[in-house]
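Escalation from tier 1.

The customer reports that the assembly of two entities below gives different structure tokens on two consecutive runs. Tier 1 could not reproduce it. I'm attaching the input and our single run for tier 2 to review.
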Amino acid sequence: MSVTLETLKHTAELARLDLSLLPTEEQNRLAEQMSRILAFVDQLSEVDVEGEEPMTHPIPLPTGLAEDVAVPAPGAAVMLANAPARSGDEIVVPRVLDGGGEGG
Amino acid sequence: MEATASFGAFVHVDRDRALADARAVDARVASGELLPLAGVPVAVKDNLCTEGLETSCASKMLGGFVATYEATAVARLRAAGAVVIGKTNMDEFAMGSSGETSVFGRALNPWDTERVPGGSSSGSAVAVSSRAVLASLGSDTGGSIRQPASFCGVVGFKPTYGRISRRGLVAFASSLDQIGPFTTDVADAALLFSVMAGQDGGDMTTSDAPVPALDELLNAPAPLRVGVPKEYLAEGLNHEVRARLDAALDALKAEGAEIVEVSLPHSKYAVATYYILASAEASSNLARFDGVRYGHRDANATSLIDTYRRTRTFGFGAEVRRRIMLGTFVLSAGYYDAYYQRAQKVRSVFVREFQAAFRQCDVLLTPTAPTAAFKFGEHGDDPLTMYLADIYTIPANLAGLPAISVPAGLTAGGLPVGVQVLAAPFAEKTLFGAALALERRLGKMAAPPAASGEKS
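Tier 1 run:
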């Protein structure tokens, strides 16, 4: 199937990507490649899947619950060591709401 | 280590830590501990979380990231006395078959540095091929251990899904990923498997199936019935790969096997099924990379949602972006049934066809890859051509089967070619019996000429 730029834009937004940040020829290339890949995977419509169950894992997973045991937590210092911006025990992020006023 | 650096295998190395770890192992041995891997230098793919060593998945998105815990598989190797030398190069977020998408630059095939080592576990294959280390860990979602093993002339093993814990493996496709070893011979692969395998409370997809003891694996008999899927021997199969496959079949016949033709009728749909499922799962797994808690954050974002968009658009490379887009699309409203759910149903068909095949034979023997290592840039700009190269390895991930690539000789041009053995789920003993039989007859692959100056 052929992927329209509209579909591409919608899909990108779902994935929190912004293709308009990329050069135009790259956006076009992505649209073209996705169209070709989707045309390729369209061959699955040939397969008779009548009565087949969708399979999430190839091997049946063991059931059963883990013991409910508390273990020591790594602590904020460890967990925040990779944070791009910190203030005390909090991660600092840009304002949640776009535009003027105090952020969340 | 310097010589290996010229093959681009390693991306993060902590020499001082490795030496300290080695001394600690010496102390443990001196105190009487019996360690199956005492002092063995190993390398770990950069998508496995390691303590004290960066885990970047060869991506800008995780540049500088140091994990807060260690992957279970790595911890088990260390507990057995292995010394982690460093992290190895890979395709970004394990998406690729050549090693060409790494943000660190390419790893080179030690047999011919103008050729790819394969991917996505490119550096791990190169590290063992060049004899910088005796063993390394990779991950395999659609062939990312087996294909580079074939291209680099080493053993590459992917266990049954659920054998080795994925805790600490940065997830690509959760129902397809498995961790496995690269080694210079089959016995070492069995050894590493026996050290790492076994249920882990930290990964609820691990199996409680008992792990065969090492001596059971090492003494496993040659297979009685070897199946060759007729769909895999299409006319276009490269004649040099075919020649190595025939040599492997002769080897197993010499060991007493009967060769049986089997059929996997839906084989041709494997690549399409895989790319829908793997991309869908990847789009979900990679949603966590948002620039908030760790990893890369775009400095020019003006709001939180802008942070997500800019961080992700610039933090991921083109192949990763492409797969996230594909995966998001096939999961989206209006397309989910026709693509994702349909692919899940086709997956059931594959599993049944393999079950039927394994009623007729003990193992399947197939090529690992359609060709020997190709040249850098040979697949040009077309992702599809690259995807189609995974045709022999993908089915084992879809069906969760154990699979191993064993070196089967060289092409006329001196490039390694591997052959692949598949067995039924949890039949690692049968699998290793076949792999050992092949190695007995075909011989172990020597180090490449370029690496023969290396100290072991």
